[in-house]
non-specific serine/threonine protein kinase
Amino acid sequence: MGCWRFSTNGTNMKYKRIYHGVAVKELDAGNSHICGLVNESNLLRCWQWPEFNSNINQNFSSIAVGENFVCGLSQFGNVTCLQKNGSAIGDVPSGGRYSVIAAGSRHACAISLNASLECWGEKVGVQPQGQFTSLALGENRSCAMMPNGTVTCWGENNFTLPETLRSTYFISIKAKRNVFCGIALSSYFLYCWGNKIFDSNSMVFNGKVLPGPCRSDCAGSRPLPNFGAFCSQGMMICDPSGSQLSGLNPLPQPPPQMTPWGSRWNKKMVAFLVVGGCRVHDSGPLDEPGIPPEAQGNGQTSQAQPTQPVLEKKLSQLVSMGNGGHLEEFSLQVLLEATKSFSEELKIGTGSFGSVYHAILDDGREVAIKRAELTASSSYAGGTKSKRREDNDSAFLNELEYLSRLNHKNLVRLLGFCEECNERVLVYEYMNNGTLHDHLHNLQSSPLMSWAARIKVALDAARGIEYLHVYAVPQIIHRDIKSSNILLDANWTAKVSDFGLSLMGPSDDESHLSLCAAGTVGYVDPEYYRLQQLTTKSDVYSFGIVLLELLSGYKAIHKNENGVPRNVVDSVVPYINQDEIHRVLDRKVPPPTPFEIEAVAYIGCVAADCVRPEARDRPTMTDIVYSLEKALDECLATRPVLSRSTSASSA
């Protein structure tokens, strides 16, 4: 482990190696001191702190370093704080159990298992009430992140979060002295606040930052969306906030208090204790998941079974149920010939589990062929090589199962599949005019340069999504609605594609719980990501982003006129709410006619409703289809048929 020391003006820095030994599991630093937990043993060790007694027998699961103290959480969630001489600090909460701990210069805070906040030390400011997931503490000031990703701050001189950041959803927050920083969920951009420089311009870097270290697994947490853009194969970035709400990641129960047997121990008692301890240790960790009964008693470790028989079984079940009746099973040789052995020159894009190729079959049919690739960069969670294979198999089966039983003119049609020689391939109808994303952001000229054409495309896509939500049995939630997953055929009919991340919806209008958030940065519903509650309204949020793209011409994540990256919601919705949508309309499209401006403003209100922070306030896809139909009629009409006062939520 090495450290760099900067000069006062920040122009010079000196490097020094301060540790070389057993791997360090966790690391935290105060203004001058550094402490970590030695891997395996979890013993506390500190550097650049000669006065600190490093011979302390404390076993922590996490630590937080202050000015002249360090606090830690035991594996059972109990708090202990130590000074430089190793003595414990008073005024520390006792009896409670906590999941998160943080330290400022002279105070510390922890989040309990029920997500409430408790602070001690030299506290300044009014401590907020509510539920929280993570903390950042500085010098006489503090910030806490709530379950939905928004942040609240308090402290000396009425310290608060700047107004411009109060609607921003964060992944994680950190603090050092007076400066606080956080990574935005929607864009992975770094924002800072706490002094005059940052408060006037919170954007630190003009681009994405690595939102966390790349790890081999996310035990007790979940991967962040699009980790593949930062990590090599087999690695992922874990959500720093984890699952802190009570019940999502329970801590092991503390051992029961032993009844005193007296103060005198004899040799038989000691021998019994040692032997018994060895036997318990040999039985495995107490907090290890339960071992299947068939693996107990013989001392053998159960091995993961190959995924191939599982895939074949599911394919067999799918065919036996009659779902694959209209699908053709292609031979691998035919597909290899059509794609020139999956040549790069025929590659036209990527999907949820692999690359997509343009091909012409022997019978003259023009098709799109999607091939699962182990190295594919996907927008859903994956880990080791075997886990990636499982994910690819799951995405392959999802598309095969869903599209084999769906039939709608606004859903891309699946023609057949190939499962041969360890290959997973799906064959679709070819969409001649590419993706909506390309027409909005990459092509200089396009037939979609009229408001009526754009509203027609939005209506087509909305009808496809409505079919998934309302008419498919069981209901299907797409989970990756975005402009690049809306394709255009030869007649400019829009169709929804890429069902690799889709899920069958829960019954009785309930929500899926504890699902790893899937999707694409900029389109993911913040409420779904934070609370892990999936409903059809998550697709509605993503579709709202597409509507904002259609109206403004901005990408979901784009740079504003000053070169600062922003989310399309932050760029466009404020103007819609102020009835000034004309200021952010796509300038590549001719100014709307009097009838068109009513339709465009109306669609703006629909889009703003779709991206409301709380899912319950968003319209349904049926509401949206109805609103888009009215808007298209308005564009094509010779007299008004709607007013701006109506929107999807009031229709």
